[in-house]
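Entry 14. Two folds queued back to back today. First construct below, sequence then C-alpha cells.
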Amino acid sequence: MNTDPRLHRIIAAQPYPLLFATISGAHLYGFPSPDSDFDLRGAHVLPLGNVVGLEVRDETLQDSCVIEGLEMDIVSHDVRKFFGLLLKKNGYVLEQLYSPLIVHTTPEHAELQEITRGCITRHHSHHYFGFAETQWKLFLKESPRRVKPLLYVYRVLLTGIHLMRTSDQRKPPCSTIRRKSGRLGEDGRRK
C-alpha cells in the first residue's frame, strides 16, 4: 500500500516502539467520506518499568488531533492488553491486526497474525452481534436518520459473517465488494 508519508512520520513520533500500526475504520472498509479522519490503530511495547508494579502506565494511548493537515484518531494498546483483548474474542483488535492497510509492521506482527488464526472461534460472533445491535439502536435514535450509522451496522454484520464463514480477517468483506465493483483499487483508494 502506498501510504501518505505523513503517516510514517506520525508513527515515528509515537512514544513507544510499535509492533504494528494499521488503518482501520471507513478507509479500511472502502467508504471514507471527504471529511473522514484516519483511524490509526496499533500495539506498542512498554518498557519493563511501566509494566511491572502495582500501577500499569500507558496501557492505552489515545489521541484525536490534526497532525500535518491529517485529522487523526490514534489508539494503541500495550501488547499485554492487546493480547488480553485477543483472548477475549474481541473482533475490534482482529480487524486492526489483519488490516491490509499497513503503515508499520515488524516480524512479530506477522508472527502474531499466524498465531491468532488458531484463536478465531464461533464465539467471536458475539462481538459482532453486540456491536451491530448498539449501532442499530443509535441509528434508530437519530432524527433525521443518516446513512453513515447504517453503514456501520452493515459493515459489522458483513465482517462477522465473513469471519464466521472463512475464519479470515485479512480481506474485509466491504472492501472486497467495493474492489470487485471496480470502485476501489487494490491499495484501498478510489479509482
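Second construct, same run, same settings:
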Amino acid sequence: MVGRAMVDAAARGRTTRVKSVLRVLAGWDDRQTWLTLAFCAAAREQKAEAVRVLIAAGADVHWDRDITLRWAVRLGHYDIAEIILAHIFAAEKWTGRSRGEIEGASLSLYERIKAGDPLQDGLGARVLEKARVIIVDHSMTCWERVRPAGPEIVIVGPAKGKPV
C-alpha cells in the first residue's frame, strides 16, 4: 500500500509526498523495488523533479537494461533522458577510469536505445541522432571532468629564451 502510494505520487509529480513515503519505506526489504517503480512512473509521466528525488534516493537507473532511459528517448522526453544521463555520467562515479571505459559505457547505452523495444517499431533516424548527441555530450563532459591533467606547457620567446 505504501509503495503504491509512492508510485502514484511520483507519477503525479508530488515530490513532497514522495519524500515522506521514502522516509516510511526506509527500513523495508522491498524498498528498492518500489523506489525503482516510482522512478519509472515519474520518468514516463515526465515529472523531472520527482525523477531527481528518486535518483538521489537510490533508484536503479539501469534497471531492466536501462529501460527508463530507453522509454524517455522513445517518448521524446529528452529532459528526463538528460537527468538520467547526468546521473549515469556523474564525474565522481568515473574518477580514475579511462576514456575508453566511459566511451564504452556510452556506446552500450546507445546500442540499447538503438535496439529499441522488440514489440514496437524501430526508432526513427532523428530520435537516434538526438539520443546519440545527448549521450556523447554527457560522456565527454564526464571525461573532461575526470581526465588526468596534462603536462604544463610553457611557451618560450624566440630571442631571449624567456616565457611569453
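Quick look at the second one. Residues 62-147 form one domain. The mean pLDDT is 90.
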